[in-house]
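Researcher: Re-running this chain for the archive, since the previous output was lost when a drive failed. Same request as before.
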Amino acid sequence: MRKKFLLCGSVGWCLEVMWTGLQALIRGDSTMMGKTSLLMFPIYGCAALIGPLYKKIRRFPAIVRGGLYTVGIYLTEFLSGSILKHFHMCPWDYSKAPHQYKGIVRLDYAPVWFATGLFFEKILTKPS
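Model: Regenerated structure tokens:
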């Protein structure tokens, strides 16, 4: 589990840097500067729980599994964001986004979390 936690934390960091770099390009920033926070590593590491969950739900259709992962990601994002916000340490702030809740989660990211959950499922369940 430790290796999978480290894998998920690292992959999460890389995905976030790519995502924020792409957003910078869309905003017109040709440097495409991507960024993340050290605080995100353990949050992304929690995706390692997808592996054991998959063993219980592998017979479900991908749309159901992706939906469950999406809910889990939202819960993780909301709980970790709420705790970090309480200590004025939250590295993200969605308060200016149109479909946000308490500045911590963005409802319009549901398709992103759906795909991300299925992506993590694939990297965590592939044969070693």
